[in-house]
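Entry 14. Structure prediction run on the chain below.
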Amino acid sequence: MSHPYRYLCRYSYIGWEYKLNLRMGLEDDNWRLTAYVNNVLDDRSLAGSFRFRDLRRFAFFDQTTFNFTFPYAQLVNLNRGRNFGVNISYSY
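Output returned:
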């Protein structure tokens, strides 16, 4: 096969991410109060993807070429969902 895209199946496409983080706070001389919301839109698109040969599984033996081949596996990482919280700090 001499087509330039013959190895395209080895790559994974990851689409756009839509992230919106909000942070608001109050501050005085000795204290600070901050409220935050991360990933306001609750975007759970793929953060990463990796395709690899899984050597932990059984190998396939091809009797015509006398080669062992290992199956492919896909590792996928998802983005964290929406989270929120409050930070309070005091200095003396």
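Residues 8-90 form one domain.
Filed with the rest of this week's runs.
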